[in-house]
Design brief:
Length: 348
């Protein structure tokens, strides 16, 4: 199935937003070393890139699995495809993080993990870290713990008759959130799985269904929907309390759904312009960008501090550009080959 370029562009922007969120504290350190000030940018709620990823993920699960509905081996094949796509790079980055922590403990922002946290990290199982937070060793992996929940639910849903698959998945997600909200806080893993952010996955599935039923946005309407999504993001950055569990879904999740609607239900058959192709290429590597950018950001900070270059905005430019380049290389020379190898190995 051919990729939809606009969705790849959206994935690129989502990963880049998360990178902007993470580069700013390090830029403040660079500025502080030189006695300079650094004004943090809060133009957008940068971590809303995660909300966009979740809505996109729900869409892609439906869109890319159309050939599986109704097949006897659908559940098994779906999980094999997803594991081959997600596991190799994440395990590699988690292992690299652990090795860096052993070699240079001061380079990490967290204490030494215990065995339970390490095991849970590799198994995508929610565990409490040594800092008292529910996150894996490589903290960015908290989103992948949710992704793995989505994959398992989707795989189970594929065992049902086609007309029940998506409603059943949405019902389970809503049930998890409802029980946590009404009866919580629940213990792990249900307290983690029952957070409102999981509803964004269902929103993405719904948009995929609308696309399958023929919904297409053209011209000014498509631009208006995308603009509304962008406006909601800008508003979410300015409204106090918009980052709460439910309010973030209301503001950031709604914005992500509008952007996904504009990207996923647009007109097809148009040859993309070179800038769109370039952003789509970064979108292809968005998973690598999401996982590798903390290493580049921290490494670039140490390099610039050691050579005495204390210009914070120059550092931000180098760190973000370096993150994109590293992601493209990682995608080309590790992620794609590793995915192919694992697919051949497990038959996915």
């Amino acid at each position: 199935m051919q990729p939809i370029h606009s969705i790849q562009v959206l994935r690129a922007l989502a990963a880049f937003m998360v990178a902007i969120h993470h580069v700013q504290p390090d830029a403040a350190i660079v500025a502080d070393r030189a006695g300079l000030s650094f004004a943090r940018s809060d133009l957008l709620p940068w971590m809303a890139g995660v909300d966009i990823f979740f809505v996109v993920s729900g869409f892609i699960m439906v869109h890319a699995s159309q050939d599986l509905f109704g097949r006897d081996d659908a559940s098994r094949l779906f999980l094999k495809r997803r594991l081959a796509r997600i596991v190799p790079l994440y395990w590699a980055m988690t292992t690299l993080f652990l090795l860096v922590g052993l070699a240079v403990p001061a380079a990490l922002n967290s204490g030494a993990p215990n065995f339970q946290q390490i095991l849970g990290s590799y198994l995508f199982w929610p565990v409490v870290s040594t800092q008292g937070m529910v996150q894996p060793v490589y903290s960015l992996g908290w989103t992948l713990n949710y992704e793995m929940l989505f994959y398992v639910l989707f795989a189970v849903g594929l065992m049902l008759p086609r007309r029940w698959t998506l409603p059943a998945i949405a019902f389970v997600l809503a049930l998890l959130v409802g029980v946590e909200s009404l009866k919580g806080p629940l213990g792990l893993p249900f307290g983690f799985w029952g957070q409102p952010i999981v509803l964004e996955f269902a929103a993405g599935m719904g948009i995929a269904v609308l696309r399958q039923k023929g919904l297409r946005l053209h011209g000014a309407l498509r631009i208006a929907v995308a603009a509304a999504g962008a406006a909601l993001l800008v508003a979410a950055a300015q409204i106090p309390g918009a980052d709460g569990a439910w309010s973030s879904v209301l503001w950031r999740g709604s914005a992500a759904a509008l952007l996904m609607l504009a990207a996923g239900c647009g007109r097809e058959g148009i040859v993309p312009l070179p800038p769109v192709k370039a952003l789509a290429a970064v979108g292809d590597a968005s998973y690598a960008l999401y996982l590798v950018h903390p290493f580049v950001i921290r490494g670039m900070r140490e390099v610039l501090l050691r050579i005495g270059l204390h210009a914070p905005m120059l550092y931000v430019g180098f760190a973000l550009a370096g993150s994109v380049i590293a992601a493209l290389l990682l995608y080309r020379f590790f992620e794609k080959p590793a995915t192919r190898v694992v697919r051949r190995w497990i038959g996915g």
